[in-house]
Amino acid sequence: MSGDDGQRVQGAYDGYALTGLDRSGQAEAFDAIGDRYDEAFPHKDGQVASGAWLAESLPAGSRVLDIGCGTGLPTSRQLVDAGHTVVGVDLSAGMLELARGHVPEAEFRLADLAELRDGRLGTFDGIAAFFALLMLPRPEIPHALRMLHGLLRPGGLMALSMVEADVDDYAIPFLGNTIRVSGYLRDELREVVRGAGFEITGESSLAYAPQSTDVPPEIQLFLNLRRAA
Questions:
Q1: What is d(CA 107, CA 87) in angstroms, rounded to the nearest whole number?
Q2: Dist. CA 115–CA 91, nearest whole Å
Q3: pLDDT tens digits, one per residue of 14-67
Q4: Distance between CA 212 and CA 118 in Å, rounded?
Q5: Distance between CA atoms of 97 and 10, rounded to whole angstroms?
Q6: Phi and psi at residue 205, in whole multiples of 5°?
Q7: Cβ partners under 8 Å of residue 17, min gap 6
Q8: What is each CA distance from 19 to 23, 30, 50, 104, in whole angstroms?
Q9: Does residue 106 contact residue 86 with C-beta atoms inside 8 Å?
Q10: Taking all residues of the chain, what is their mean pLDDT, rounded to a whole number?
Q11: How do 198-208 and 177-181 pair as beta strands?
Q12: Which stretches within the chain are classed as H helix?
């Protein structure tokens, strides 16, 4: 990565003051959940379709960042199988251990999303961000999107998914643990995404009921994004 790239990424994050919330509880929850996550979400049709758009739309051999990669399934596996170079990032060491077993061809890093603002991972042709940003408090999400915009090379693509919900840092039970989530209604999500410098080239939604008794059905939103400037 050139010095100019590093300055551009850091500049995209200027003014971002972390809320000071302790995120370790989120990581510990997913460490405990482990491969039960894939058991609870066995049919990820929306994510698979969005991942296929990203994999097929990028030039061959693109460098792709998988934010909140979890167990590496299905997205990191999907992107590697399409011939791309994948760097996966997650807060959970337990999830990353599973990901390394599922997708040994990819590179996986333990990191908080906010830590990437220094450009340590370089720039990318594409980014997958499936349900990763919903783990942030709402005030952080626009800044995170601008930072991801800065990590993309000109014309780069991002597959983004969120759960449609008007909530901010809301505690929910999840597979015997508690996690905190945020969300937007879809019109507001579009505004936030465009405000971060992305063009929306495609959109879909899906009603999804996890195979779990403690999580209600949700509406999943999938946006196909291009770096607009």
A1: 5
A2: 11
A3: 444 444 445 556 666 555 555 556 665 666 899 999 999 999 999 999 999 999
A4: 38
A5: 29
A6: -140, 160
A7: none
A8: 10, 21, 30, 34
A9: yes
A10: 85
A11: unpaired
A12: 3-12, 24-33, 36-40, 45-57, 75-81, 93-102, 141-151, 186-195
Higher pLDDT, 214 or 18: 214
Helices 3-12, 141-151: crossing angle, 10 deg rounding: 160
The answer for 176, left when phi > 0, alpha when psi is -120 to 50, beta otherwise, is left
d(CA 198, CA 216): 31
Q: Which DSSP symbol is given to 102?
A: H
Tell me the one-letter amino acid at 131: F
Give one word for 157, left, alpha or beta, with left for phi > 0 and alpha for psi -120 to 50: beta
CA dist 204 and 220 (Å) reads 8
**Residue-wise pLDDT tens digits, 89-131:** 999 899 899 999 999 999 999 998 888 989 999 999 999 999 9
